[in-house]
């Protein structure tokens, strides 16, 4: 039986990228038949001393891609809630949604990279406060998008009688993605606000840990009376696919981190499709293929031609 999951590309380059490179990868993603193109929201690479890293703003580039692509859905995985005030973020995402004709999705999390915040002068509160802020941000963003007016009085964020809220094209609003490995607060926040829960396979624990995270989300939905079937469940999968062993190993070497390699799909197109099937068996209906070498457009083309036909339900790019 063929696996049927939404297949997406996640760009997180090791050395950053200029817009021309990001655009080329997004267009290759669209041409190959993927459902969506997502990018990370980082201003610094994993090595803070790497002078070659080229930071770009996530939502500025997504705005460019909204005009330069025609079919793929676009989004962040994930935007750090520490980076932007929620009212501004709601307006930014709604603007990109309008620019794309309703193809945008907002992945949002607490933010985790303290050194990155220090390097760019962004406050980095305690873990507990970051979760508090994330929950308030989602209340503000969804409140503004719901319109026609919004007032919110929280501990960290306040909205005073906004009667001209941002108006995204998608209704009731663009899809929201929340995820992580936490057993309690993350799934509870996702159950309340998310269109999609991301089980964060790359945080470790393998497929069984992913299955348990999905189960935590299901329990959190039940606790507030939400039908768990209303939400998508997704996973991020680092990938190195090759037509030959040498090609596979060359692409695997770019992944770098042992943790990422341990949870990656490394091998032939058939082996990559089998790994995606394992994630589907664990409950994922959406898989983000984590791409590190953004200049290797042949990698995208190979996966599109040899893997997608065996795992993706369609190539329409329409939201499910």
From TrEMBL:
InterPro entries: F420_OxRdatse_Rv1855c_pred (IPR019952), Luciferase-like_dom (IPR011251), Luciferase-like_sf (IPR036661), SsuD_RutA_monooxygenase (IPR050172). Pfam families: Bac_luciferase. Residues 11-252 form the Luciferase-like domain. Keywords: Flavoprotein, FMN, Monooxygenase, Oxidoreductase. Residues 165-175 have a biased composition (Pro residues). Residues 160-182 are annotated as: Disordered. NCBIfam families: F420_Rv1855c (TIGR03560). This is LLM class F420-dependent oxidoreductase. It comes from Pseudonocardia zijingensis.
